[in-house]
Write a structure and sequence with these properties.
6 helices; six-stranded mixed β-sheet; globular; about 20% strand
Length: about 160
């Protein structure tokens, strides 16, 4: 990984944020989005979700990035022909409960020609992996468009109080 500032670190600042475990890089563009939210909400503590390629789940506390996790869900959805799909919530739930079956769920959805199930399975795996981040936390999804809509819907279906900014 190239140079950057190690987390925990202030959200505001120049350059990328780097994390050793899990290995991650929050690019300057994503860091700027988090910094803008932190500046507008200086005492906020919770999780900021950036639905992009890659997507980022950032634990923010009092203007500091404590940790983050990043995912290739959007890229995988595009590669599997599910870009612009609406996540099928039953498939999302099934994959969340059994993320080890992701590849099987994707194949079944592919055979059925169901792009919504593909996206549901991919988001279900991401939601399972990030559960320790969002469970019991304030969550805000940054952005507009179909990807932000999908993340908000997925979180809402899990009973997570989610805001949008």
């Amino acid at each position: 990984m190239s140079d950057g500032v190690m987390v925990p670190a202030p959200a505001e600042g120049q350059g990328a944020l780097i994390q050793r475990q899990p290995r991650g890089r929050l690019e300057p563009e994503a860091r700027a989005l988090v910094a803008g939210f932190a500046k507008a909400n200086p005492k906020w503590d919770g999780v900021v979700v950036i639905p992009s390629d890659p997507s980022h789940w950032v634990h923010l506390s009092a203007g500091e990035v404590v940790s983050f996790q990043s995912f290739l869900t959007v890229r995988l959805a595009s590669a599997l022909g599910a870009e612009g799909a609406v996540p099928e919530m039953e498939q999302l739930g099934d994959t969340m409960v059994r993320p080890e079956k992701l590849a099987m769920h994707l194949r079944a959805a592919e055979l059925g020609g169901n792009r919504d199930e593909i996206l549901g399975a991919l988001l279900g795996a991401e939601m399972a992996a990030t559960k320790v981040f969002w469970l019991g936390q304030q969550v805000v999804v940054l952005g507009e468009g179909v990807w932000a809509d999908s993340y908000v819907e997925a979180l809402t279906k899990q009973g997570v109080p989610v805001a949008r900014s």
